[in-house]
Structures are given as C-alpha cells and as structure tokens.
Design brief:
It is built from 12 helices and 10 strands. It is of the alpha+beta class. The strands form 2 sheets. The chain has a 6-stranded mixed β-barrel with strand order 3-4-8-5-7-6. A 4-stranded antiparallel beta sheet has the order 2-9-1-10. It is elongated. It starts with a helix and ends in an 11-residue tail after the last helix.
Length: 398
C-alpha cells in the first residue's frame, strides 16, 4: 500500500528524492576528498619507513640491556644498534669504476628499509659478513645491481703508516632512492662492529685483519635505528625515550601536518553535516507531516478499519525509507561520477594508484544505511499528527 501511494504521488516523491540527493552529494564529496587526500598523504608516509624512524640526537653509550628493554615497547616494530658514525664508512671498489666511500648502516632480519627490496621470505634472511644492500645512489656510482661482486676496504692510521683491511662483498639488493636518497651500505651488525674495532686498532681474526688483541668486553653502541609500528607510535616512542633521557630525531612535523589536515577536514565535514543535515532533517520531517495532513481522511478510514496508529506510522515511515534508499542510490552514483572526474583532472599530480577523492565500498554502504535511518527518523516526527486522527473522522467518507 505504501508503494502504491508512493507511485501515485510520483511528483512529490521525485522532489523528495532529489532534495535528499542535493544534501548527500556535497557530504559524500567532502568525505571522499578527506579520505582521498588524507589517505594518500598517510599512505605516502607509511610507504616510506623513514617516516616511522626514531634515531637519537648525538652519541652516547647504549648497552645491550637498553635495547632489550626498548624493543619490548608495544609501539616498537624494529630496532638495530649502530656503531660510531665516525667509523661507519667503507671504501667500495668495483672493477671499472673509481672507488667510493659509502656510509655503513647495521641491518637485521625484518629491517623496514629493505621491505620494498625483498620478498617476505628473503626479508627474514640474516646477512653474512660479506653480504650487503646498497642504496640506489651507490649502485649508480659503481654500476652495481643485485648479485654484483665488489671489494670493501677499511682503512686506519697506525703511527706513520696506513693500514687496510679488505673483504669481498656481494650485493643482495638495491634500495630505491625514495627510501634512502643517500649513499648507504647496509650490512650485518657483526661487520659494522668489526669495522669499528679495526679502526680502533684491534684485530679482526674472522676477516684476517691484524691488530692488537681485544678483550671479551660487553659491546657498547653509540646510536640505533628504531621504527614504530605505525605513525601514531612515533610520538609515543619519542616521549618514552625522552623519559629515559634520550633526545631523538623524528618526522613528527610531517606526521602532525597530515593529522592536522585530517582534523580540519573532519571539522568541515561535521559543520556541514550539522548545518545542512539539520535543514534536510527539518525539510524531511515537515514533508512527512504535510503528507499526513493531506492524507488525514484516508488515514482516518484506515483507522476505522482497525489499523492501529503504530501501523499507520509504519506506513508513512516506509515511504520515507524508500525515499532515503532511492536518494542514496542516486547520490552515490553522482558521487562516483564526480570522484572519477576529480581523479582524472588531478591525476597528473598523483601517483598511479593514488586518488584525490575516493570512498571505500564499506563507507558507501554505511552512508546509504545512514540516510535510510535519517529519513525514517525524520518521518517519525509525523507521529504527533497521526495521534490526533480519530477513526470517527473517516465516517463521513465511508
């Protein structure tokens, strides 16, 4: 009966649907731009693990127990100690190219900087002493690629003479420039520590490098690389380390910029929803009340036939729910067309898989459900008008 009445008043029904579409499309567009732009910026931050990196400012003595405690923090994903920066270099020699000094960084299985270079199985590989990863800058300087072989040389000054330690190296992979734009060489922590020992005048028997004997003292590290599980964890880890007396360097400024942008879009969306949504709700409610007034005699006849006022309310709410459903379909179709246009127009400034305006299927379904509930709730305002209808009013039309 509600459907037949809806079809009979097709012009009013069309206007009701169109007015709700006019309300929904701007809301969906603002939400889509928020998800598209902020989602893209957040994805860019997450895709580059450097944005989740926390490193100490300056140098100090960090003992193994410090790292054992730090890695247990719930926001810590990966942690590797680093040797002194002054000794963390290695001269790289490749046939046919001038030798070149690369900065040494310790690495370990699960290193986020290698996540784009390795598949998950290879990412768990423990580097041997002669295995390294190089940044794209180093690879271009020396003509290297995965599987290339070269020689590493470490020098020190002993009195009036220079001494060198050499070892063969094999490139296990090349790290893209957007991950690390510097001239970096990633090696095992053991090799980084041996390089530091050699420069300090100690012997490295494992590599055949001669020098004075080193006792079995507990290793002490001057730096570390720490990565959080997500962007929110960066600030929590920074504050945790600050509480331990360790000042750190993070990408907090970039992360805050994205979060502020997300907050600004949220405020704009909520403001529009309150203002425009309030008007749409009032319009839908007044329309339902007006329909009840127009149908007063017909509804009185239905009441005379024994239909309860609650069922009469369901009758009016069914029409409102249908209006919300049709409006949701129309608004989402228009939104998808508008989003496609915006993404096409701004496609030149975005990546291949990035969008300036987008909403997930879940959010589109949720929006449709919300607008149906919204319209149904608005039609509930007609209950006061229904409550005044008496069955006796229908007697004159029987």
């Amino acid at each position: 009966m509600a459907l037949k009445r809806y079809r009979h008043d097709w012009l009013y029904s069309f206007c009701s649907v169109f007015s709700m579409i006019a309300f929904m499309v701007p809301m969906l567009t603002v939400l889509g731009i928020k998800d598209g732009i902020v989602g893209t910026l957040t994805r860019r931050l997450l895709e580059n693990p450097r944005n989740r990196e926390i490193s100490p400012i300056g140098t100090r003595a960090f003992r193994p127990e410090f790292f054992e405690a730090l890695i247990t923090h719930p926001d810590a994903e990966f942690l590797v100690p680093e040797t002194r920066e002054i000794s963390a270099t290695m001269n790289l020699i490749a046939e046919g190219y001038p030798s070149f000094d690369g900065d040494l960084y310790s690495s370990a299985p699960g290193d986020p900087l290698l996540s784009e270079t390795l598949d998950p199985q290879a990412l768990s590989h423990q580097l041997a002493l002669g295995e390294i990863y190089v940044s794209q800058g180093v690879a271009e300087k020396l003509g290297l690629s995965e599987g290339s072989e070269l020689t590493g040389r470490v020098g020190r000054r002993q009195g009036a003479r220079n001494e060198y330690g050499r070892l063969p190296l094999k490139v296990m992979g090349v790290i893209p420039r957007h991950i690390t734009p510097k001239y970096n060489v990633f090696c095992s922590l053991d090799l980084a520590r041996m390089t530091e020992d050699f420069r300090s005048g100690y012997a490295v028997p494992e590599l055949g490098w001669k020098g004075k004997e080193k006792g079995s003292e507990i290793p002490v590290y001057s730096r570390f690389r720490l990565y959080s599980r997500d962007l929110d964890g960066v600030e929590r880890l920074r504050l945790h380390l600050l509480g331990l007396g360790v000042d750190t360097l993070t990408q907090a400024a970039q992360i805050k910029l994205v979060k502020d942008l997300d907050h600004s879009f949220t405020v704009v969306f909520l403001a529009l929803f309150v203002v425009v949504g309030g008007g749409a709700f009032a319009s839908a409610a007044s329309g339902s009340i007006d329909q009840v007034v127009k149908m007063r005699r017909s509804l009185a006849v239905l009441a005379l036939l024994g239909i309860s006022k609650l069922r009469l309310l369901v009758f009016t709410m069914s029409q409102a729910a249908l209006t919300g459903f049709l409006a949701a379909l129309g608004a989402e179709a228009l939104f998808l067309a508008l989003a496609k246009t915006l993404n096409s127009y701004f496609g030149g400034s975005m990546g291949a898989v990035e969008e300036v305006c987008s909403l997930s299927a879940f959010k589109l379904v949720a929006a449709a459900a919300i607008i149906v509930v919204f319209m149904t709730a608005a039609s509930g305002c007609a209950y006061t008008s229904l409550a005044d209808i008496e069955p006796s009013e229908g007697m004159r039309d029987v």
